[in-house]
Amino acid sequence: MSNQRVVAAGGAAEVGAGCEPAVLREQPVTEAQAAELARVFKALGDPVRVRLLSLIASHDGGEVCVCELSGAFDLTGPTISHHLKVLREAGLVTGERRGTWVYYRAIPEALAALAEALRPATVAGAGA
Amino acid sequence: MSNQRVVAAGGAAEVGAGCEPAVLREQPVTEAQAAELARVFKALGDPVRVRLLSLIASHDGGEVCVCELSGAFDLTGPTISHHLKVLREAGLVTGERRGTWVYYRAIPEALAALAEALRPATVAGAGA
C-alpha cells in the first residue's frame, strides 16, 4: 500500500497516524504535532512547490510525468527536481521511476491531515 | 469588521476573497494563488508558530493575552513577539493592545482558506 511507503518515509501522513490527529483550533497541539505540521507546512512555503503539488494533485488520473511538469515552469530541470524532492521528503507526493521518466502522485492522506489540522473545532464556542 | 482589517493587511483571507478560492486538488492554482498560499504556509513552517496559533485558536473565548502565551514557551519575550508578528503579517492572527498587554485572536477566514485549498476535489475522479 502506498500509505505504508508514506509512513516509512516519515511523511505528513504521520501527523494523523500513530498519534492523535492534530486540530489546531480544538486544543493546543503538542510539541511533536507542531514539529511535524511545521515540517510539512514549510515544504509548502514556496510558490513553485505549491504549483507543482497542485499540478500533480489535480491531474487527470492522479499521476503526472515529470516531463509534463517541467514545461509548466520557466525553471531548469534540476531546480524542478529539487522542489519535487522537497515535496517527496515532506511526504506530500510519491515519485516512481518507469523507464526514462519519474511519475508523481499526490498523497491524499497527507493533504487530508493538513486540512484536518486547519478545520474548525467541533466543540461549541471555539473557533469563533 | 475584522475581515476588513485582514484584507487591508494583505492577509491569508485574500486567498479566498477577491479571486476564485484556490483548491489545489481541483485544478492547477494560478501563480498569484500559489504565491499567496505559499506566503501563509511559510508562516506556519515553524513549530513555535504552529503552537502559538493553536494556543490562540483553541483558547476559550477565542482571545489570549500575550502574557499567557509567553509562559507556554522556554523563549524570551522578544522571540515570542517576533513569531507573533510573522503570524500577524501572514494574516493568521490579529493583535489588539489594551492597556499593558496585547490580546491575540485567530482569523477563522484565513484558516478556512488554507483548509479549503487542501480539501479533496469535488469533481469525480480527481484526488484518488
CATH-assigned fold name of chain A: Arc Repressor Mutant, subunit A
Roughly how much helix do the residues of chain A carry, as a percent range? Answer: 40-55%
Strand order of the largest sheet of chain A: 1-3-2
Mean pLDDT level of chain A = 85
Total domain modules of chain A: 1
Total strands of chain A: 3
CATH class of chain A: Mainly Alpha
Kindly report the greatest chain-chain contact and the residue count on each side.
Answer: A-B, 48 and 48 residues
Separation of the first and last Cα atoms of chain A: 39 Å
The number of helical elements of chain A comes to 6
> What composes the largest sheet of chain A?
3 strands, antiparallel
Pfam families (chains A, B): HTH_5 (PF01022)
Keywords (chains A, B): DNA-binding, Transcription, Transcription regulation
Organism (chains A, B): Streptoalloteichus tenebrarius (strain ATCC 17920 / DSM 40477 / JCM 4838 / CBS 697.72 / NBRC 16177 / NCIMB 11028 / NRRL B-12390 / A12253. 1 / ISP 5477)
Domain HTH arsR-type (chains A, B): 29-126
Description:
The structure is a homodimer of 128-residue chains. Chain A is α+β, with helices and mostly antiparallel strands. The first copy, chain A, has a single domain, classed as Arc Repressor Mutant, subunit A, CATH 1.10.10.10. In chain A, strands 1-3-2 form a three-stranded antiparallel beta sheet. In chain A, α3 crosses α5. Chain A starts with a helix and ends in a 10-residue tail after the last helix. In chain A, 46% of the residues are buried. The N terminus of chain A is likely disordered.
